[in-house]
């Protein structure tokens, strides 16, 4: 299996409505493609982990990369994994700006307990930084 983590910048017009659409589509597609992961959005940037069968991760990230709702996608890590690190759910996601900082941090901590130390640090430090 392959795990990929990237960060990208939302185009200025992206709002909660776009996020809902992205999540709905991702849940359906990712369940079908046996992908799990985590999407964080803070109103400005996306941080996403995607993991599952190599070919499905590759085809999905290729689609995501051409999505006009964000730009400047930078891959933070790409690694082979033996077991999923983001659980059984298709995609756990929320916009950090919608929650109080402490709750968001606690939730990110809880959802990344199985992730490798580096990947976990990417998510928890992002949450601490952005939720402030
Ligand atoms: C930040 C971001 C994350 C996304 N994550 C996913 C994802 O995990 N899975 C997915 O299928 N599409 C994701 N999308 C949507 C894809 O770019 C694309 O719109 C969608 O996969 C097209 O699906 P369709 O061919 O079923 O219409 C994401 C888009 C953005 C902007």
TrEMBL record:
Positions of the BLUF domain: 1-92
InterPro entries: Acylphosphatase-like_dom_sf (IPR036046), BLUF_domain (IPR007024)
One Pfam family, short name: BLUF
Protein's UniProt name: BLUF domain-containing protein
